[in-house]
């Protein structure tokens, strides 16, 4: 679904990482670990095609979702408007009301992002995963700011996605709650 061979990246004079290879198959959950600044976000961005690698290459065999650690919500945007915008951009026909309900966002669905809690903003970003079915999910610290219920919700989404043959690559700190098929420490 996704493979990376011999990736390496320089930041200034420093080699951030080198020789990183990865093979992501159906049903996989790959955990990226490492200290702050180790390069997890950079690696995920390279996998998503958002940052250019200095060496090696990535082969993408399936469509992916990228959910970064910044939620990508504009201050005036409501969860409902955010999902509607992306649904339109992707030509997705999913029912946004159902997704808002499933993500626990029915109550704040029409509240501007600047007034949402951090967890509500994160739930809104993660709701994009439900808009359009894509086999590979690239998730940067997906549990940040989520309460216990939100975390369980995301774990259930990941579980179902993997059962349906999808794959996840996630940067996480601490306990992920996933049964990982691979762990990579940067
Ligand atoms: N575009 C860039 N130009 C220069 N340096 C960068 C750039 N992007 C990232 N870096 C640096 O690369 C290093 C790795 O950053 P990255 O965000 O990938 O780490 P991380 O492992 O995700 O960290 P954290 O756990 O804190 O989120 C950091 O020192 C960061 O400052």
From TrEMBL:
UniProt key word Transport: yes
Keywords attached to this entry: ATP-binding, Cytochrome c-type biogenesis, Membrane, Nucleotide-binding, Translocase, Transport
GO MF assignments: ATP binding; ATP hydrolysis activity; transmembrane transporter activity
Pfam families linked: ABC_tran (PF00005)
Source species of the chain: Hyphomonas johnsonii MHS-2
InterPro entries attached to this UniProt entry: AAA+_ATPase, ABC_transporter-like_ATP-bd, ABC_transptr_haem_export_CcmA, P-loop_NTPase
UniProt GO BP: cytochrome complex assembly
Gene3D superfamilies: P-loop containing nucleotide triphosphate hydrolases
Name the UniProt record assigns to this protein: Heme exporter protein CcmA
SUPFAM superfamilies: P-loop containing nucleoside triphosphate hydrolases
Boundaries of every ABC transporter domain copy: 2-185
């Amino acid at each position: 679904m996704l493979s990376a061979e011999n990736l390496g990246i320089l930041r200034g004079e420093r080699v951030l990482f080198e020789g990183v290879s990865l093979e992501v198959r159906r049903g996989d959950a790959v955990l990226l670990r490492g200290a702050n600044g180790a390069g997890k976000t950079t690696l995920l961005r390279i996998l998503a095609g958002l940052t250019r690698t200095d060496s090696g290459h990535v082969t993408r065999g399936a469509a992916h979702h990228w959910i970064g650690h910044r939620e990508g919500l504009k201050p005036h945007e409501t969860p409902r408007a955010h999902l509607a915008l992306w649904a339109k951009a992707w030509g997705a026909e999913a029912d946004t009301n159902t997704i808002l309900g499933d993500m626990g966002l029915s109550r704040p669905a029409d509240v501007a992002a600047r007034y949402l809690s951090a967890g509500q903003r994160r739930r809104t970003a993660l709701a994009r995963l439900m808009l359009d079915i894509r086999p590979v999910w690239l998730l940067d610290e997906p549990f940040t700011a989520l309460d216990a219920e939100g975390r369980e919700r995301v774990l259930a989404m990941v579980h179902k996605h993997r059962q349906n043959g999808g794959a996840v690559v996630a940067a996480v700190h601490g306990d992920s709650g996933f049964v990982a098929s691979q762990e990579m420490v940067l």
